[in-house]
Design brief:
Blueprint (H helix, E strand, L loop, with lengths): L3 E8 L22 E2 L17 E7 L6 H14 L4 E7 L7 H7 L11 E4 L15 H9 L5 E10 L2 E10 L7 E12 L32 E8 L6 E2 L10 E9 L10 E9 L5 E8 L2 E3 L3
Parallel strand pairs: 3-4
Antiparallel strand pairs: 1-11, 2-14, 3-5, 6-7, 6-14, 7-11, 8-9, 8-10, 8-12, 12-13
Length: 296
């Protein structure tokens, strides 16, 4: 079965979505969100939304500084629980996907040095691709913003097929055009094949968390690897008629799950709202596949 967008429709706040497949008991999911069942539904749009930040990291197993990039991102996530979400887009290795090259060349100037990251796809000093040294300041500046939109999501799994519903809501009437992009990510990829070994330039640096871990690192944990783009590459349009106070738009997807790359990994869904003109990300949400994640 090919991935396909099923429908887009607008609903008033307070709508309860009740048609949902049961989760396949053979698919493991951690406790990040409520396990879906027909009785669980997305609630009404809240009066305010918490601003969350999306980090799209561009990385490669062959780049020796990639562990330092991922380590800093993990530190930022730990310091700001439920406020920062991360997707790693691999280049020139076995985990590489077409979305990586699309995004690395989508903005001017293009991304030329790995590792780097796009923070909410915002431009800082004329560049949307930030080096490691600028991650923290860029993330903190985005966390300080206020937003009038947010997301909720629910999904289920049945016989290797995932059913995903992405809700975008607005607390005040909005003008302009908006898109919603949705990724399927594999949370922790650890694989014994040498194709997954991670180059480590910090192996001889005693101040690094990766000192004496080997170069390459054999059992390296690759976090939040983007495996599929459920939406269009740069997002699916939100119906302009839903951009009103308390309104909700829903995008639904049905996909065949690919084979996992990791030995004990889990699937997650990351979805974010962007300005269709500037491509800046306004807000983002993430949860385990097969669960419900309500607003905020």
């Amino acid at each position: 079965m090919n991935m396909k967008k099923l429908f887009l429709y607008a609903i008033a706040s307070g709508f309860l979505f009740t048609s949902c497949q049961k989760e396949d008991s053979t698919e493991p999911t951690p406790n990040n969100g409520s396990k879906t069942s027909p009785s669980l539904a997305v609630g009404p749009v809240p009066s305010t939304f918490v601003k969350k930040v999306m980090i799209e990291e561009f990385t490669s197993t062959s780049n020796g500084m990639s562990p330092e990039s991922a380590d800093l991102i993990n530190s930022l996530i730990r310091s700001n629980p439920n406020r920062i979400y991360h997707a790693s887009l691999h280049s020139m290795d076995v985990m590489a996907g077409s979305q990586t090259n699309r995004l690395m060349t989508a903005f001017t100037p293009t991304a030329t040095t790995l590792p780097c990251a796009s923070i909410d796809r915002n431009s800082f000093s004329g560049n949307r691709y930030q080096p490691i040294t600028k991650y923290s300041n860029s993330v903190n500046s985005m966390l300080a913003k206020t937003v009038n939109c947010g997301l909720a999501m629910r999904s289920s799994i049945n016989k290797g097929i995932a059913y995903v519903d992405i809700y975008s809501g607005f607390t005040s009437s909005a003008t302009g055009t908006y898109k919603v992009t949705t990724y399927l990510v594999e949370d922790v990829v650890i694989n014994g094949s040498s194709n997954y070994f991670q180059a480590n330039s910090s192996n001889t640096n005693p101040t690094s968390n990766f000192f004496n871990m080997g170069n390459p690192i054999v059992a390296y944990a690759h976090k939040n690897v983007v495996r599929k783009v459920l939406s269009a590459d740069m997002g699916d349009a939100v119906n302009p008629g839903t951009l009103a106070n308390g309104s909700t738009a829903v995008l639904s997807y049905e996909i065949d799950l690919p084979n996992k790359l990791g030995t004990s990994s889990n699937w997650k869904i990351i979805s974010f709202i962007t300005d269709a003109t500037t491509n800046e990300i306004y807000n983002v949400q993430m949860c385990d596949l097969g669960t419900l994640k309500d607003w905020n």
